[in-house]
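Intended use. Records like the one below are meant for learning the mapping from a protein sequence to its folded structure. Do not use them to infer anything beyond what is encoded.
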Amino acid sequence: MLSKFLRVTGRCEACLFSAKSLVNPQRFPAPSKPLVIPTKVISHLLQPHVPVPAKPLVTQTRVMSHLIPPSQYDMPWSKKLQMLYVMRVYWETIPLFLTTFFALGVLFCAIAWAINNKVDAVFHTHSRGNISRTMDLRNPEYHKIMIINQRYAPWPEMQDVLDKMNEAEKRALTRAQSCSTP
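Structure written out for the chain above:
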């Protein structure tokens, strides 16, 4: 902007008389008619160039209930994060999603089966149905999905010891009950 202004003012009569023109006046003859510069050109050249912001496409009106200013987290989700959009536009991802969903389905089925059938996982510590209290060592059960080269041999000696311990607990309980009643 300033260079345009200097170019225009350089054509002015007063600017033509410089130190060089005083030394050699024939070189710069005076113009035949004065240079007229319109005021619009000068005012345009002198105004600072400030870009005018474009009007927003959507004007946002705030309700009194929205006193909290918007933040970066109030932005809507991108369509690239919606699964159906991604599968429709980027169809190469369909096998990836199918294998992932299949694996998650197998995982949740295995978890549900383990919760119902596994006996080594105890969810309640004071449950009386714990496998260590209810297992039959004379006829052991299989609690695995697949058995490879394993045998569960009966252990009758340990079962006899467990039976004697249970009988002793029952006798001690009946004795305590009979002594406590007057």
